[in-house]
Amino acid sequence: MSREKKHIPKFPKWLLRQFCRKEHLEIFLGDLEELFYQRLNTLGPKKARRAYFFEVVSLFRPFALRRIRFAFISNQRIMLSNHFKIAFRSLKKNKFYSFINISGLALGLAACLLVLAFTQFETSFDQNHPHSERLFRVNQTNVWAPEGGFMASTPPPLAAAILKDYPEVEAVTRINTPGGRLVRYTGENGELVAYNESSVLAADSNFFDFFAFRLQIGDPQTALVGPNKVILSPEVAHKYFGDQNPLGKTLEFGENRLPVEVSGVTFPQEDNLHFHFDFLLSMPSNPNVEKFDWSWIWTQMATYARLNSADSELALEEKMSALTNLYVKPSLSRLGMNFDDFIKNKGGWNFELQKVSSIHLGSQGIGNRIGPIGNIAIVQLLRVIAVFIILIAVLNFVNLSTARASTRAKEIGVKKAMGAMRKSLIQQFLVESITVTLFAAILSVGILHLLRWTITYFSGIEISISQFWKPELLLVFIPIPIIVGLIAGIYPALYLSALKPMRVLKGNLSTGMKNSALRNILVTAQFTISIALMAGTVLIYQQLRFIENKNLGFDHENVLVINNAEKLGKQIESFRNEVRQFTEVNAAAMAMDMPGRGSWEDFFTREGSNIKLSISQNKIDEHYFSTLGFSIVAGRAFEEGRGDDKNGLIITETTARLFEWENEEALGQKIIYPGYPEDLRVIGVAKDYHLQSLRQEIMPNMFFHLDSKMWGDQRVVAIKYNYSNEDQLLSKLEQSWERMTDNVPFEYSFYTEEIGQLYAQERSLSGLFSIFTGFSLFIAIIGLIGLLSFSTEQRKKEIGVRKVLGATKLQIFTLLNKQYLGLFLLALLLAMPLSWQRMQAWLNSFAYRIDVSVFVYLLAGAVVIILSLASVSYLSLRIASTNPAEVLKDE
Amino acid sequence: MKFTQLGEFEELVLLTIGALQDNAYGVSIKNEIQDKTERKVSIGALHSALNRLEKKGFVNSHVGGAKAERGGRRKRFYTITLIGQQALLKNYQLRTDLIKLIPNISIDR
Q1: DSSP helix/strand/coil, A284
Q2: CB A457 within 8 A of CB A390
Q3: pLDDT at position A419, please?
Q4: How far is CA A869 from the centre of its chain?
Q5: CA A458 to CA A463: how far, in whole Å?
Q6: Are A27 and B44 inside 8 Å of each other by CB?
Q7: Contact B43 A31 (CB under 8 A)
Q8: What is the pLDDT of residues A229-264, one digit of tens each?
Q9: Which residue from B minimizes the CA distance to A37?
Q10: The predicted structure's pLDDT at residue A468
Q11: Is residue B1 in a domain?
Q12: Which residues pair with A262 in a beta bridge?
């Protein structure tokens, strides 16, 4: 009994005893304890303790609170209120320094709070699924990437196999991606609603036992049982059906207008889940799933498993290596594929388990078939930067308070002479620093909203506002200003309270070498951070420019791509020809796909060698090369009117090299694709181009003729237009499209924008860095202004004397700034080793990259130094040009 | 005495107390509400509602029933008063009257 009791967390219990009224205490403690043991059994000790804590917090209500009795007023209390009074007075007296401290800390705190909210959101993903602690996703070796690694896509029979073979697996479910569809609904009065829908998933019928989606209409047990059922998101339900009840209505899916019955509508879906859907089909609605029921290479599923205990993860992973011999090899040989050939360089065909709650941040490289993933690197980076920024603000505070010690010296001397204890003085200074940080905290809430807006604007990273007022976050945030206040205040408090009363009252307080040395160190630290961040900003910007200006091997400017062109059917050619006649259009071409959108790989061999290559293919017409500006290095591109071109191939230089041909030598050679009915001969070699983003090396590539018998039914039309009216062009295109199709939505994209999207992550990183660099620099500079304005104030007389003796303005100006220039250069030197490594690591994620050069640092250093000197120069100039008579006349 | 209103959550608590009869105390009320409605009820919210109900005179309470699993502490049991019962009936009546006025609505949809 007493051993068990140890599980009840002590702190919340103590807290309750402190604030709760005596008459309720016994009942509350009893209820909480009973609940705790209930939860211990169902949720486990960790969650039970957490819940206990939140229940105690929930009891923090007026009716339960103990009345504060004002009857006892101790000396302590009076002193405390006196400390506050003095703190306010000194803040009011030194408005300028208060402003510097408070605004710096407020910016720092705002950055901190924002990062806290962001990380809180990013780490809150997938916590609320039923039994989430036992819920895993099954990953397997990425057999489609030449270098292997793991991927989140798995074949259909995997789920059933592990459920059957391993008793540790309690239940399994699968999610399939049938791909985007055209969805139509014909209303009761015959009106047609049709959209191209991209967010379409299919799931097994036990979906709702696994995931925290809830239905507001429909029965989760039966909604996904049987073919041709679909569950909608509430937004989509409203889009198609307005205010009508969608249950039982029929939607038509895809080109063949498969009728699908609406069997449910979810509640609005939570943001922090690793996937969302607009349409969730029942699994049998996608006939391919049954067709490939036996195939271990049709990796079109995300497979999830619930284990009987989270501890069996490792043991099960070990056992799953048996699946390869048992199922994968037979399945491959049925296809006539050689397992060892296929798996070469990929390190075996393996399976692993990944906790569903770690998918959002832990899937770099693995990916997530069914939704976007987060980036743990950005989360970590933001954490570091937030700490740095608040550090700079804290250092400002320490610097200013110690530098200005002499102004407080008399007060301290008098207090000590009157018998103040050192402890009480320390208390006083801490109260002052905490007051400053509390003001800053209030201000930071306002700044926060400004900052959130700025971040979304510059980096596209949305930080959800709903995260800010979660109780967990407030509990973390409220102590932060107090802790920061303590950290910032403790050194000045110790320093100031140690002043000797006799010496300060006699009036010879030496500002001391020791302290100005400390201040120099702190200023150097601040600028080291600022320069390191600035260098990061410069570098990211340079790499981004490099990427954007790099010649990709084709021309994407002024290109418009019409998607879903296969829906034009046989009319696609007349569409292209009609478009080519438009005055706004220079050229137009048809193809299966565009570079940058993905790759369509398959295996090919050549005649006279057993080299086997995985090559990405595209199918194009005769105008494609000229429309997109690809260049030919040997042979020719497809030409109009040459019927035999349809069995011709254009390969890229890399493909030729990997097949061990010289460019010229490749012409006329035969490439073999198993099952292709006719001979395929190379008619041209194209210059290499970047099919994928510049993070990847150039891969082998080739082009089939659009009329060839190669697989691939998708079509796009690429249109090169001249600098005329885009709106007019679009409306003309849309008219032609509507004339030639039957109510298919017209969809297009500007190709340059699309290529730019490949680097969206880098662009948002660049935006983020600029903002935070700006912040850190701003705080460091206002701190510098504070320091300098104080030291010039102190040295007024000295400067007056120097001027009388003939010093020039320039000499005075250099005298004042010389010291800081040295510190800046030191900071520049320190910043290099601090950030060099990190920058290299980031650049290494690109196959095509710039090098880190000293130039980056010189530029960053120059920007920081010039900005800082420019902002303090007003002060130095003012003091350098004062009339010495003014400052020397009194005394 | 001025007529006191019964809030939505208070009504739920009051109904649950009635349903639990002799065994209505903090934990049992909380569990019952969670089972029936699937909404999370914190002990704080519950006790504050109970406190308001008692102040409005809708429930009476007495202490007793100490148990080991509560660390030997007693429970506070709640029972509905006559005023409480009337308030519930009044709300019920109001709702059935209003629901009858809505066309095309039936319970077994």
Answers
A1: helix
A2: no
A3: 85
A4: 35
A5: 13
A6: no
A7: yes
A8: 999 999 999 999 988 899 999 999 887 788 999 999
A9: B69
A10: 63
A11: no
A12: A230
Q: Could you tell me the residue range of the domain that residue B19 belongs to?
A: 8-101
Q: List, for residues A737-751, the tens digit of each pLDDT value.
A: 988 887 788 888 899
Determine contact: A37 vs chain B, CB below 8 A.
yes
Going by pLDDT thresholds of 50, 70 and 90, the confidence category of residue A288 is confident
Other C-beta atoms closer than 10 Å to the C-beta of A713 total: 7
Indicate whether B63 belongs to any domain. Answer: yes
Q: Is the dihedral of CA A628, A630, A631, A635 positive or negative?
A: negative
Query: How far apart (Å, rounded) are the C-alpha atoms in residues A232 and A239?
Result: 10
Query: DSSP H helical segments within chain B, as ranges?
Result: 8-20, 26-37, 43-56, 82-101
> Is the sign of the CA dihedral A36, A38, A42, A45 positive or negative?
positive
**Is the per-residue pLDDT at A783 higher than 70?**
yes
Structure confidence by residue, pLDDT tens digits, A584-612: 899 999 999 998 887 777 788 888 888 88
Choose among B57, B56, B55, B59: nearest CA to B13: B59
The CATH number of residue B88's host domain is 1.10.10.10
What per-residue confidence (pLDDT) applies to A472?
66
Tokens of A478: 């409220």
Quick check: is B2 in a domain? no
Query: Contacts of residue B26 in chain A, CB cutoff 8 Å?
Result: 27-28, 30-31
Q: How far apart are CA A572 and CA B91, in angstroms?
A: 67
What is this model's ipTM? Answer: 0.87
Closest of A31, A134, A84 to residue A485, by C-alpha: A84
The full set of domain ranges for chain A reads: 2-64, 132-358, 376-546+760-888, 559-751
Is 0.80 surpassed by the pTM of this model?
no
Query: What are the beta bridge partners of residue B62?
Result: B77
State whether the Cα torsion A150-A153-A159-A161 is positive or negative.
negative
- At A868, list the tokens: 């800082």
Contact between residue A397 and residue A94 where contact means Cβ atoms under 8 Å apart = no
- Chosen from A6, A26, A244 to mutate, greatest number of chain B CBs within 10 A: A26
CA atoms of A346 and A331, how far apart (whole Å): 18
Alpha carbon distances (Å) from A747 to A204, A563, A706, A716: 31, 6, 21, 10
CA A478, chain centre distance (Å): 26
**How many domains are contained in chain B?**
1
Count how many pairs of residues, chain A against chain B, have C-beta atoms within 8 Å.
72
State the Cα–Cα distance between residues A491 and A471, nearest whole angstrom.
Answer: 32
CB atoms within 10 A of CB A540: 21
What's the CA gap between A282 and A81, in Å, rounded? 68
Optimal mutation site among B29, B37, B47, B48, interface A, most CBs of chain A within 10 A:
B47
- ∠ CA A746-A575-A590, nearest 5°, is 90
pLDDT band for position A620 (50/70/90)? very high
Per residue in A363-392, pLDDT (tens digit) is 888 888 888 888 887 788 888 888 888 888
What lies within 8 Å, CB to CB, of A591 at 6+ separation is A618, A619, A620, A621, A624, A706, A715, A716, A718
pLDDT of residue B3: 53
Contact B70 A34 (CB under 8 A): yes
Tell me, what's the pLDDT at A5?
47
Rounded mean pLDDT, A283-300: 86
pLDDT for position A513? 46
Q: Domain for residue B82, yes or no?
A: yes
